[in-house]
Design a protein that fits this description.
The chain has one domain. Helices cover 17% and strands 38% of the residues. The protein is built from 5 helices and 16 strands. It has a 6-stranded antiparallel sheet with strand order 1-16-15-14-8-9. The chain starts with a helix and ends with a strand.
Length: 261
């Protein structure tokens, strides 16, 4: 009995570490926080909250930049409204897939690739603004009908002059996910996570990789420039410059961007 209690205590500590890793409490384990310089062409989004999506509208940013109002642009590049992830159904379900998926993950064994679906709860659809280009939730990213290509460039300044250079590249659209967008932590002691069923872009989401094991999880940033192609043919170039706040909070995104590209 004492051994069982010891094992559960260790599990509780490990899960607690997982829950706090993106909130800066364990920042010294992964890497040191770095200061980031704000300016035109750079976004800062506090995406640390498990329960919210944040939407970025490149057309709106371009329109503000065209006015020459640097103060308004700086505000738009750093102030984003949270859109909570629904966890209940208050209206008639639009389909049979929108909802919260509960998965068991083998976090103390073989890792996230070993999983089992345990439950599904229908919820309202994810709210969103009328106009948006991409949305971020912690290490997850989705596009508004777009597709993404990862380049080998590590600086937007080094890109070819226009996106036409990538006309023949293979762009990957968003795809349905039931395991990537972690929302509900209430059953983490049992290795159960409530995940939002939603379309995400796996290529663009790879700019932050989370590995379990080890415990606490290991975070790795990908500084390559990604090209986003939208349904209207316009393109944006984006690069994750940092995923740590000056105070050490993980999933605090500093994003370099060029739009239109």
């Amino acid at each position: 009995m004492r051994r069982i209690k010891t094992v559960y205590a260790a599990m509780a500590v490990a899960v607690a570490l997982t829950a706090t890793a993106c909130n800066g409490i364990l920042s010294d384990i992964y890497d040191e926080p770095r200061d980031s310089a704000l300016g035109s062409g750079q976004l800062v989004v506090d995406a640390t909250n498990w329960h919210d999506w944040y939407y970025i509208d490149f057309d709106s940013l371009a329109a503000i930049a065209a006015t020459g109002d640097s103060a308004a642009l700086a505000h738009a590049e750093t102030s984003f409204t949270p859109y909570p992830i629904p966890t209940a159904l208050t209206t008639e379900p639009a389909d049979t897939t929108t909802g919260m998926y509960t998965y068991w993950f083998d976090v103390f064994g073989r890792g996230l690739d070993n999983y089992d679906k345990r439950a599904f709860t229908p919820t309202d659809a994810q709210p969103k603004p009328a106009h948006w280009s991409i949305a971020v939730h912690r290490n997850n990213v989705r596009t508004n009908g777009g597709a993404v290509f990862e380049t080998n460039y590590s600086s937007i300044a080094d890109l070819p002059p226009t996106g036409a250079a990538f006309a023949s590249a293979t762009f990957t659209p968003d795809e349905w996910s039931e395991r990537d967008v972690w929302v509900d932590q209430s059953q983490m002691l049992r290795s159960l996570i409530g995940c939002q069923g939603i379309m995400v872009n796996k290529v663009l989401s790879s700019w932050i990789k989370v590995a379990i094991p080890p415990m606490p999880p290991a975070f790795t940033g990908n500084s390559h420039v990604f090209i986003i192609r939208f349904p209207n043919g316009k393109m944006a170039a984006v690069q994750l410059a940092n995923y740590i706040s000056p105070k050490g909070a993980k999933c605090w995104l500093t994003i370099n961007y060029k739009y239109p590209y």
